[in-house]
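Why run this: before we spend reagent on co-expression, it is cheaper to look at a predicted model of the complex and decide which construct boundaries make sense. The entries below are exactly what would go into the expression plan.
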Amino acid sequence: MRRWNGWGDEAIEFALNEDALGFLATRIGNGNPVADASFEQACAQLGASRLPPHRLIDTSPATRLRNALGQSLPDWLKLRYGRIGPAPDGVAFPESGQEVRELINYARLYGVALIAHGGGTSVAGHLTVLDPFRLTLAVNTTRLCRLIHLDQQSQLATFGAGVLGPDLEAALRAHGFMLGHYPQSFEYSTLGGWIVTRSSGQQSLRYGRIEQTFAGGVVETPQGTLEVQAFPASAAGTDLRELVLGSEGRLGILTEATVRVSKVPEYEAFHAVFFPNWQQAEAAARELAQGRMGLSMLRLSNAVETVTMLALAGHKRLIGALETWLSLRGCRDGKCMLMIGVSGGKAQAKTAMRAALGLCREHKGVHIGRMMGDKWKQNRFRNVYLRNAAWQYGYAIDTVETAVDWSRVESMMHAVESAAETALAAHQEKVHVYTHLSHLYAQGASVYTTFVYRLSGNYEDDLVRWKALKHAVSSAIVDNGGTISHQHGVGSDHAPYLEAEKGAAGIAAMQAVFRHFDPEGLLNPGKLVPPQGLAA
Amino acid sequence: MRRWNGWGDEAIEFALNEDALGFLATRIGNGNPVADASFEQACAQLGASRLPPHRLIDTSPATRLRNALGQSLPDWLKLRYGRIGPAPDGVAFPESGQEVRELINYARLYGVALIAHGGGTSVAGHLTVLDPFRLTLAVNTTRLCRLIHLDQQSQLATFGAGVLGPDLEAALRAHGFMLGHYPQSFEYSTLGGWIVTRSSGQQSLRYGRIEQTFAGGVVETPQGTLEVQAFPASAAGTDLRELVLGSEGRLGILTEATVRVSKVPEYEAFHAVFFPNWQQAEAAARELAQGRMGLSMLRLSNAVETVTMLALAGHKRLIGALETWLSLRGCRDGKCMLMIGVSGGKAQAKTAMRAALGLCREHKGVHIGRMMGDKWKQNRFRNVYLRNAAWQYGYAIDTVETAVDWSRVESMMHAVESAAETALAAHQEKVHVYTHLSHLYAQGASVYTTFVYRLSGNYEDDLVRWKALKHAVSSAIVDNGGTISHQHGVGSDHAPYLEAEKGAAGIAAMQAVFRHFDPEGLLNPGKLVPPQGLAA
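The model came back. Tokens follow.
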């Protein structure tokens, strides 16, 4: 059973061992464990549904609660403390485009706001009900999950847009294909969610961001059905896919999506390389990204993240031996770990890895083989469970991410980290901060920063702490020329920072597009961009 | 000096030798040479300019004529026969964003239509004045041509949007960089033109379509300046670049563009492989495109194109020897030529070529080395000059292109070719038709078909012939599920076929975007999509 107030399956626990807890205590002090509200207590918070009855709508408090929020830190605070706030008045589970159109007509008739809800894994407040006075219906898309068509020759698969990551991959694997889109939320996020939030996966270097794999689809909108045909490429005016990508439920409800799939590769491997310091590591990573080397993943941890990962890994003696060995090879304090992935035909992949490792050596990189890489692959979707474990011991974990050009990657990293480190000074709290570059491009990289800090034990205080931290790091991002999100989307948490990058003219254009498809403002109101007229 | 009524520089002549003429005569009969109108005769066609004077506007007939049309076949007919029709009332050559804003204000004040004019190489009627009753100003962007900024670390270059292909590459080469965008119009087309028509170049397999290299820019619109920031990637809502790409002058005038550039590669080579028949050639090409092999170009000619290229190549004895040799290796009538390019580090490129040639062998491909490839590279921008030569002998050459999924590539090729072959039957004229796949993707390929047919010697008859042919092939494209353009854009020639792929909802969305930026309908009116309300 999926956790209602945390990440993942209830049966899966990722413990923090004593060494890890000691590490955190040294850095930021002992945590303050908080007593969680029960599911029943949380349900009791919900007011009665105000929706006119409809055969497709479930108004039970349990269903409403499970579709009320996502996985952002403020969402967690609401769930853990049992301070739900406004929730949808009901949840519909449409099983066809026809049923979605029926729900849109219902919404128009009664002026009901519609919040499209996929896997509920948003970490940016996409799913929150912002206006408590407005009737609101969550449209859960997860029953739109069928493999509708597979064209093996053209490597195209059409799915119901609510299909979950693992179900999508399983359906494709049965035919020898895969999509290869692996965000950390993979286990619970949906294809449609990836598309409307412009998601990116861990192996995007090979398989592309969702923008590259989304080839076409069907969106039900208040202005009718928008069918986006799938072409290999086209110069025929505006690419309609791009209106759907990143639309975050403001344009319509995506019911079907066609994606470009790949043959399951013959071979896959992840290797780790340590560098003596950030400058050498970044230079190597940049050269690898700009070298078109045919790699499938590059992921570079800075020194604090490297230390943290080694500390949390357990296996104290093994890690101790590794560190001694690395130290003899020049990688001591300040060392940074680069993970390199290859996938494909065995000969091609091995050649690419050899070339990559050769380039790393020129930058004093020390190759330690596949051990850490295999471990990373094994835990690639497990690390999110650490958030549950940390919470149990009284620590909050949150992340923020951006992307910038290479010439600003290092200064961005320092700006975000130092903003975070001092953000809770007024609360006399320290923040443990570390960063990795999760997605590398020829132009630049995503800068993905994690914060660990102590819970206060009080809902209001924890919300204040989160807001202070979020504002500090988001301001650092836009002030340093980064995008407010590289892979999580905008939702409500990032919306205040969007105009800094889009400009007044860009925001107005986005509003014009959404107003065209949704003139009555029924769709996910208040998310992404403010209603017309409120920008500039 | 650039030709005013044909392609390219007046000093460059590409002759058709007797064998080539004999080949065409056998196929479609002897040509009917037409006497061209003189530049003076054509200028005399233009009515007096009706524009209120402005310091930036040149109203001389010579300048107006040189900025009146593009390179489509109907444009050629107008120029060659001296039947210009409506032309702009003046031409402005702005040198800054400020001057473009000034021109937009002028246009608003006097209700003047603005046609953005880059290199004037459109083959889809983007530049034509459609409404003779409307005051019209061509805005020639070619003085916006400076390299404004080069960030070597992030491999980003910002140019004035009117920079011509060769000037852009020369500016980058001085620093060891290149863009690598090589449409056949490269010598005269502009960066801005590539962007607003979603152009694609010959080596897009490595360097990407213009969509992949266009990172950001500045557009002057009647609603103000739209500045699109350049991020390596972003999940922050609508990608504003995508509103600019393919906007064909309907949204604003692009003044600056930032592009992702690459280091000049160490090594480059083009090899040719012949296959016994289309089926084997297509299967090999598809596997190469789906194999992520790190190639920079794939270009597959069908049997008739292969024969035509060999016939037009001259060097009769050399080609004869090659054909004998190929025949002994199983490539006789029906053989198809695949051109394979690699670029990059020498070892990496050679490994990729070896792997590609190995795969071709499995499909009975016969590798003939670099001779044909070197020849192709040498003539990559020269083949367009053949149009001038053919015209001199009384033949028209036109092309049409689309893109479809692999499962429909062969049927599309046959549909377009047979539509073309019979399109002039009512005129008792034959059409010589051949096709290549110019851009190959994992999902499918572009299908690029060339037609050669005889001129009638009469403007009206030639326009009727062209219309019959264009309608036949365009209908075949949309009826078979292709996009109306893979690389040339929509303009006015393809506009009637756009709704077949975008749907009424898609057309309405495009209209909404353009209406938002240009509520008075000043920008390139009538191109791309009909004015609001005329679609559905």
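Residues 267-380 of chain B form a domain with the Alpha-Beta Plaits fold (CATH 3.30.70.3450). The first strand of chain B starts at residue 57 and ends at 58. Bring this page to Monday's planning discussion.
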